[in-house]
Amino acid sequence: MYKKQTFDVEEQIISVPVGAVRLEGELVIPEQAEGIVVIPGIESNIKHGYSLRYLAHLLRQAGLATILIPLLTEEEEILDQRSKYFRCNIRHLATRLVVITDWLTENPITCNLKIGYFGASAGGGAALLAAAERPTKVRAVVSRSGYTDLIGSALSCLQVPTLLIVGREDYPIIAMNEDAIAQIPAHDKQLEVISGASHKFQEPGMLEEAARLANQWFNRYFKLAKLTAMCL
Helix count (H) and strand count (E) of the chain? Predict the structure, then answer.
């Protein structure tokens, strides 16, 4: 395990056992962080996926801890590049995200942090499904351009505060997420359609806007969770 300590942030390359495989991720905990955002990727190498790495950087600037971790092994990613099988298997991805969540709650350095998810595309679908399966552990979930059509009836079980973010130019995903928000029974839910953004949010300023909305959402519900715990 690689570990680096600076004056205000702790960084670790961690390895999470998931069944017969291990998934390697990048864990960064700013000093005084009260919550951690799990950012699942599809690429097996966490150095890939610029948009998710940049998002993690922006969330950490706001004081949130992050764990950027792939949900596929290198071998699975190679197969997926040809068949798209794994990225369309939301249940497979969500099951691994649930295991990562349980690992965070048991790890001494993360067990006291409130947990949130930020997923994009297939990772967004996996985040919603995993949040439905861990309602007492996950405090908030954000999905950007999420494949909500692959989740099925599990949306009707989602009680976690949920923010869906889509780009105004991403017409098919807008329709999917409009249908999804109507199915989610969570009391706190919101759909944000960002003008000028396409599916990958690669236009200038669009990733920053998604990060701003996500940061507000996580901080709101992490603080509510802290206040609730103090009153118990």
Answer: 7, 9
> What is the pTM assigned to this prediction?
0.91
In single-letter form, the type of residue at position 32 comes to Q
HEC assignment per residue over 71-123: CCCHHHHHHHHHHCHHHHCHHHHHHHHHHHHHHHHHCCCCCCCEEEEEEECHH
**Other CB atoms closer than 10 Å to residue 74's CB: what's the count?**
11
CATH topology of domain 2-231: Rossmann fold (3.40.50)
CA dist list (Å): 112 to 51, 159, 225: 28, 22, 12
Answer yes or no: are the C-beta atoms of 156 and 185 closer than 8 Å.
Answer: yes
**pLDDT tens for residues 114-162?**
999 999 999 999 999 999 999 999 999 999 999 999 898 999 999 999 9
Q: How many CB atoms lie within 10 A of CB 128?
A: 29
Contacts of residue 190, defined as CB under 8 A and 6 or more positions apart, other chains included, come to 162, 163, 164, 181, 217
Q: Are 31 and 5 in contact (CB under 8 A)?
A: no
